[in-house]
Amino acid sequence: MAKITIRRDQSAGTISRYIYGNFSEHLGNCIYGGIFVGEDSDIPNVAGIRTDVVEALKAIHLPVLRWPGGCFADEYHWRDGIGPKEQRRNMVNTNWGGTTEDNSFGTHEFLELCRQVGCEPYITGNVGSGTAQEMSEWVEYLNSDGDSSVVRERRANGRQDSWGVRFFGVGNESWGCGGIMRPEYYADTYRRYQHFCRNYGDNKLYRIACGPNDVDTNWTEVLMKNAAFCMDGLSMHSYTIPGGWEHKNPATGFSAEDYWETLVISADMERKIKLHADIMDKYDPEKRVGLIVDEWGTWFEVEPGTNPGFLYQQNTMRDAMVAAIHLDIFNRHCDRVYMANIAQTVNVLQAVILTKDGKMVLTPTYYVFDLYQNHMDARELGCTIEAAQAGTEKHTLPGITASASEKDGVVTITLTNLDPDRAEEVEICAGVPVQEAKGRILQGKMGEYNDFDNAPLKTEAFSDFSIQGDTLRVKMPGCAVAEIRMKVSE
Ligand code: AHR
Fold first, then answer.
1. Is 467 exposed, middle or buried (0-12, 13-18, 19+ CB in 10 A)?
2. Is residue 10 a part of any domain in this protein?
3. Which 8-state DSSP code applies to residue 43?
């Protein structure tokens, strides 16, 4: 039996809703086909944006969406994506498959997508191949209501009022695809570029600097030392790549060893966050600067027969476990982690949604986001987890992961049994009398997935638990993620 003690006296603070963000890049069939099909498409759409995808994202209350990249951001020139579509410049997407980008999805279309979904936009500007002036004018185009040529241009393109975009990233992976810069050089460049990204009216930009690749603590150190004073957030990218870049796992048809290796890599996110948070604490003890994990998730071999540059992979219950592990870690570290964006929303890497022409399927990862919704903006509650190790000889982890929060007299706990085969009884001590509890669950076999013709995995009602005073006894099936909401009395 496993035991979870909810520590109401220990809280890392409020869980930022932005931890439940997504990332959508001009890559493969994420934007084109996955989100944007154009007004003339037979696929139901509003202003060219797929209605099924919008409805799915609304149902999980997606809070923030990052765009246009990724690596694409540092070769994207925003003026190519405004104005009459037939006059928009074409370019080759050199990062992702060498396809022709016709720029039919640009600033206006992205902000229309955010409006339809009801989420906040997070735009990443081009440092690698763009100028400070270009970035400055993009921010002006987005946010100014003054009388200038740039604002007049926006109005001529059909948008009278500014959008008031708050989250703005200054470059992407500037240590790699964004310009292979040294941290010292980027820190100075960041200072210069962000300086010309002005605040307009009441809109105060939340400026996000490019942060470390995985465990590159030197990057964090140099950035925090030299530029913390002029940033609101520092991004971090860390993917789960079992087998490494050279021998990536297939997304389906994997072994138990692969399964556990994947989960062990995911769980290491906790150590990585602590590494960077400790450095940030040194320069920013008040925790003003947010750690923005704006790319995370699994990276497997592409599906056979698909374009290797499109990063299209299936999504199994293993991905659901990875998502639960990450979201629990982000919740626990909400004193520093202000935003996280899974890579990516549709058809790319650990996608929450897959599409094929007019069909759409919701992945197990989507359902984990569904189960975790109630943590958004709630007060995190510490959890002590006592669980036996599970796994193989080579790869082991505590078999149970969880996180908890409280809002309006309701305690929400999300708990996951990572063991693919063994059910586990879990005793949850809430610390206060539990009046009633309601549950939902996602469960399946480790390699199971939803496909376009057969989608068995989804969240269902869950009631395999009993309440005794302040304690809940839960029978968690193997390979399952559950949400239990407890009405408590003080
Ligand atoms: O998400 C795919 C790519 O991974 C992004 O473009 C880049 O930022 C990262 O390396």
1. middle
2. no
3. S
Whether residues 27 and 139 share a domain: the answer is: yes
Contacts of 217 (CB under 8 A, 6+ apart): 275, 276, 279
The encoded tokens of residue 57 equal: 């994202």
| pLDDT at residue 424, rounded to an integer | 97
Residues 386, 313 share a domain: no
Co-location of 337 and 442 in the same domain: no
Centre of ligand 1 to C-alpha 140, Å, is: 27
Q: Which of 319, 349, 376 is the last residue of a domain?
A: 376
> Judging by DSSP bridges, how do beta strands 410-417 and 465-468 pair with one another?
unpaired
- Report which residue type is found at 239: Y
| Residue 7 placed within a domain | no
Domain shared by 137 and 82, yes or no: yes
Per-residue confidence band for 295, with pLDDT thresholds at 50, 70 and 90:
very high
Tally of structural domains, the chain: 2
Ligand 1 neighbourhood includes 54 CB (under 6 angstroms): no
Could you tell which of 31, 71, 294 is best to mutate to test the pocket of ligand 1, judged by most ligand atoms within 8 Å of the CB?
71
pLDDT reported for residue 188: 98
**Does residue 228 sit within a domain?**
yes
Total-model pTM? 0.97
Same domain as 188, residue 82: yes
Letter string b/e over residues 447-462, b meaning 16 or more CB atoms within 10 A of that residue's CB:
bbbbeeeeeebebeeb
The predicted structure's pLDDT at residue 489: 84
pLDDT at 226 over 80: yes
34-38 average pLDDT score: 98
Cβ of 172 below 6 Å from ligand 1: yes
Locate the ligand 1 atom nearest the alpha carbon of residue 343 and give its number: 1
| pLDDT at residue 137, rounded to an integer | 98
Domain that holds residue 406: 381-488
Known catalytic membership, residue 380? no
**Among 311, 342, 376, residue at a domain's last position:** 376
Question: Would you list the DSSP string of 95-134?
Answer: TTTTPEE---S-HHHHHHHHHHHT-EEEEEE--SSS-HHH
Mean pLDDT of the chain: 97
Q: pLDDT for 417-458, tens place per residue?
A: 999 999 999 999 999 999 999 999 999 999 999 999 999 999
Atom of ligand 1 nearest to the CA of 172: 8
Classify residue 393: in a domain, yes or no.
yes
393 is a catalytic site residue:
no
Q: Tell me, what's the pLDDT at 490?
A: 73
Same domain, 217 and 286: yes
Gap from CA of 427 to ligand 1 centroid (Å): 40
